[in-house]
């Protein structure tokens, strides 16, 4: 769509309406003019002349009065590099008449076309050779082409100006742009006419939800309350702040909306909503209207907590400068720093520490710290930052997990490597219930387990249930982990103290046939345990595994062990 950067007195809609292209009159094609640029077959012309479509003369002769229509016509030919002289009849000459449309005097007076018409008229007056356009006209034409979506009009020497493809694309693009503009204006007017006949039946809450400032102003002027709530119980100001509607928030505050209105739900304030959404301008606006920077939500979060969780550094800085409490705990016992660490927002953590946040503060109930949370989530950069800042990596949570153990739960290899490089204890710490390797084995994290073993992890260290890492891997059905641990020398027939469970009995209890097969082939004793592997599989109803164990027992010379009532138990006869 073409527009004129030079102002003018008409509106945008009027501009569009007045330049709709019209059909050319009959007889628009021209004979070669005596004063034109002769090219043998036809004349290259790019011109506008007033009056009825004239016979072509050298400088636009035959022009009629200024009120007549203007035939705006494009024709193109391939110009020889030698110049535009009077050569004719050459096979190299190839003429392509492109397109024409009519512009009347009203169109020419329109600022949208003023520059364009002047360019074309000045380019063709007195039969000017189109390849030798003055720099000012050239620049104006190229600006027109750029607006029409076409590239440069010519090369440095101007030879491309008379290229028929360039002129064809110019004419087509301009015509299409005008058509589209006129169609768009028609649609706009139709829509406006349709909307003008409709009554806006939206409620104030609906207008706020749509961010329709004018509709909100109108409804408020009609007497609606600025402190209404939505059907969901949200205040209008909170709705505007959570959606990022700055102008709407301005209007509501100007109409004396309650800056602390939590709605019927009594949950978050508008400041919390804006901070959670990352809307810095609204946060500043609310603070200018004396919003309480330390209000807490129903879950104990403050605006600072929400900003830290979202990673909005600039909002964090503004809130801290306005006196936000840096050590407030939410219902999970998390401080703003802990929320930032859990989400991996390093720059937020840096700002908080610069403002005095306690790096080793822990939650009241779960005893989590910023470091343990970052390790559990696997935020390597955050872990590195906190370690460099002096975080205690041997601090234990309520489950007696160190930072390394938290990393091992979800298999964060690189975090574990960093912690080990920083001196973390690879085996079970004092007073803990399990080792990092047991946690890795339980989760099936093979690469992490390999790292821990490489760093000296004890393969036979048992957790509070008496299970070794191999038993944990077998109980969870992690065949690859079982293979790794056995390859590293784990005791395949180790038993728990009280119930004499083995890796094989645990695998059979869980119905993990592949693991049971692997263990048996690796030499597991099928007779160990207070409850044998067969008994465990039978009790849990793993029929296929029972069949496998019976076959394995017979093949191993255990006919007496598996004979008699054992097979009956597997089919449901008798009891255990």
UniProtKB/TrEMBL annotation:
Start and end residues of each stretch annotated as Disordered: 1-39
Keywords assigned by UniProt, alphabetized: ANK repeat, Repeat
Compositionally biased intervals (Gly residues): 1-10
Q: What's an example Gene Ontology biological process for this entry?
A: innate immune response
Record's InterPro entries? Ankyrin-KH/SAM_domain, Ankyrin_rpt, Ankyrin_rpt-contain_sf
Q: Which SMART domains match?
A: ANK (SM00248)
Where in the sequence is the signal peptide annotated? none
Q: Which PANTHER family match?
A: ANKYRIN REPEAT AND KH DOMAIN-CONTAINING PROTEIN 1 (PTHR23206:SF5), MASK PROTEIN (PTHR23206)
User: Under what name is this protein listed?
Assistant: Ankyrin repeat and KH domain-containing protein 1 isoform X11
């Amino acid at each position: 769509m073409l527009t004129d950067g030079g102002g003018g007195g008409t509106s945008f809609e009027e501009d569009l309406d007045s330049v709709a292209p019209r059909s050319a009159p009959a007889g628009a094609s021209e004979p070669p003019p005596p004063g034109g640029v002769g090219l043998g077959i036809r004349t290259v012309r790019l011109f506008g002349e007033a009056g009825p479509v004239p016979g072509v003369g050298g400088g636009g002769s035959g022009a009629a009065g200024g009120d007549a229509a203007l035939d705006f016509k494009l024709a193109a030919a391939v110009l020889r590099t030698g110049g535009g002289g009077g050569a004719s009849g050459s096979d190299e000459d190839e003429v392509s008449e492109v397109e024409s449309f009519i512009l009347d005097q009203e169109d020419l007076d329109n600022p949208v076309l003023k520059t364009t018409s002047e360019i074309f008229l000045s380019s063709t007056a007195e039969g000017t050779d189109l390849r030798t356009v003055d720099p000012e006209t050239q620049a104006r034409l190229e600006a027109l082409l750029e607006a029409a979506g076409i590239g440069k009009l010519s090369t440095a020497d101007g030879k491309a100006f008379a290229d028929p493809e360039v002129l064809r694309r110019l004419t087509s693009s301009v015509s299409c742009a005008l058509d589209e503009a006129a169609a768009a204006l028609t649609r706009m007017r139709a829509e406006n006419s349709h909307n003008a006949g409709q009554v806006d039946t939206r409620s104030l809450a609906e207008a706020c939800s749509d961010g329709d400032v004018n509709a909100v102003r109108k409804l408020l002027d009609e007497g609606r309350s600025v402190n209404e709530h939505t059907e969901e119980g949200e205040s209008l100001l909170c709705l505007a702040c959570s959606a990022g509607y700055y102008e709407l928030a301005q209007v509501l505050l100007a109409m004396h909306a309650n800056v602390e209105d939590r709605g019927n739900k009594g949950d978050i304030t508008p400041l919390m909503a804006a901070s959670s959404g990352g809307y810095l301008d609204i946060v500043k606006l609310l603070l200018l209207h004396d919003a309480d920077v330390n209000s807490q939500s129903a879950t104990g979060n403050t605006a600072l907590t929400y900003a830290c969780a979202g990673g909005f550094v600039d909002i964090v800085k503004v809130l801290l400068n306005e006196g936000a409490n840096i050590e407030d705990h939410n219902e999970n016992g998390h401080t703003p720093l802990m929320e930032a660490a859990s989400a991996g927002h390093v720059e937020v953590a840096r700002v908080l520490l610069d403002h005095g946040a306690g790096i080793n503060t822990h939650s009241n109930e779960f005893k989590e710290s910023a470091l343990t949370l970052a390790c559990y989530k696997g935020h390597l950069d955050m872990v590195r930052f906190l370690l460099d800042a002096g975080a205690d990596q041997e601090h234990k949570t309520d489950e007696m997990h160190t930072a390394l153990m938290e990393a091992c739960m979800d298999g964060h290899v690189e975090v574990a490597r960093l912690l080990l490089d920083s001196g973390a204890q690879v085996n079970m710490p004092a007073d803990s219930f399990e080792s990092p390797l047991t946690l890795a084995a339980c989760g099936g994290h093979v690469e992490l387990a390999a790292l821990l073993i490489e760093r000296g992890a004890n393969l036979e260290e048992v957790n509070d249930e008496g299970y070794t890492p191999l038993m944990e891997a077998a109980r969870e059905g992690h065949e690859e982990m079982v293979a790794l641990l056995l390859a590293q020398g784990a005791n395949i027939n180790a038993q728990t103290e009280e119930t004499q469970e083995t890796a094989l009995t645990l695998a059979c209890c869980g119905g993990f046939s592949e693991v049971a097969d692997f263990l048996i082939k690796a030499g597991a004793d099928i007779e160990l345990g207070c409850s044998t592997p067969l008994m465990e599989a039978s009790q849990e109803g793993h029929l296929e595994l029972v069949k496998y164990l019976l076959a394995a027992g017979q093949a191993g010379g255990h006919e007496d062990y598996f004979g008699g009532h054992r097979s009956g138990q597997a089919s449901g006869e008798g009891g255990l």
